[in-house]
Specification:
Number of helices: 9
Number of domains: 1
Largest sheet: 8 strands, parallel
Keywords: Pyridoxal phosphate
CATH topology: TIM Barrel
Strand content: 15-25%
Shape: globular
Helix content: 40-55%
Domain Alanine racemase N-terminal: 18-230
Distance between the termini: 27 Å
Number of strands: 8
Cofactor: pyridoxal 5'-phosphate
Strand order of the largest sheet: 7-6-5-4-3-2-1-8
CATH class: Alpha Beta
InterPro entries: Ala_racemase_N, PLP-binding_barrel, PyrdxlP_homeostasis
Modified residues (N6-(pyridoxal phosphate)lysine): 44
Structural class: alpha/beta
């Protein structure tokens, strides 16, 4: 037992149990095996002590979305055997830092970023799994390739040294119908698998819509709030 305040551990354990019940129920409803879906705990704005508690409770996948917060946290939690997912918008100039700790990058959406990630992965002697983020709405601020450009960016990833094409990622449009958005993503993912059979990952679904995402084939759900509660963000 770490020297954490026991009540925080209890809070996180309760959140994890509740999310686990939701994921299990959504899998059952979709006729899918529970092990088809991986839970990624999104720990942005939460301290490294929370990451340690999650690891202690058996969570193996952790997601972050800002490099300046993620890099020191990953360093502090090195040795916990976690798989780190970078889930936020990414600037090309952050490629070297992100590649140093991220095992999976969910937000790859342009060839220039692929080139930067490839260069840094080779330099660091790492193999990084990349998911191509697809925009399911017309909001450029949220990132992602237009569905028509998915194949092109995916091919670039697939042929880039040091990178592995894992599959696709998307965020449900704000105010839109998440079920429709995730059904569209499932179609795009199936089309991608026709060309790249190993690209089986579909990263979709967050605290508010994970049930819809699992119904439409999501293999990775990214959950923060439902797991860790609403806290005042700490700013580094």
């Amino acid at each position: 037992m770490n020297h954490q305040h026991p009540s925080r551990r209890d809070e996180i354990a309760a959140g994890l149990a509740a999310v686990e019940r939701r994921v299990a129920a959504a899998c059952a409803a979709a006729g899918r095996a529970r092990q088809e879906v991986t839970l990624v705990a999104v720990t942005k704005t939460y301290p490294a002590s929370d990451v340690r508690i999650l690891a202690d409770l058996g969570v193996a996948h952790v997601g972050e979305n800002r490099d300046q917060e993620a890099a020191p946290k990953a360093a502090e939690c090195a040795g916990l055997g976690l798989t780190w997912h970078f889930v936020g918008q990414m600037q090309t100039n952050k490629a070297r830092s992100v590649v140093s700790y991220a095992d999976v990058i969910h937000s790859v959406d342009r060839s220039r970023l692929v080139e930067a990630l490839s260069r840094e992965a080779v330099r660091a002697g790492r193999r990084v799994t990349c998911l191509v983020q697809v925009a399911l709405d017309d909001d450029p601020g949220r990132g992602g390739v237009a569905p028509a450009d998915l194949a092109g960016v995916a091919d670039t990833v697939a042929t880039a040294e040091g990178l592995v094409l894992g599959g696709v990622m998307a965020v449900a449009p704000l105010g839109g119908d998440p079920a429709r958005a995730f059904a569209r993503l499932a179609e795009l993912a199936a089309r991608l698998r026709a060309d790249h059979p190993a690209a089986t990952v579909i990263s979709a679904g967050m605290s508010g819509d994970l049930d819809h995402a699992i119904a439409h084939g999501s293999t990775l759900v990214r959950v923060g709030t439902a797991l860790l509660g609403r806290r005042k963000p700490f700013v580094r």
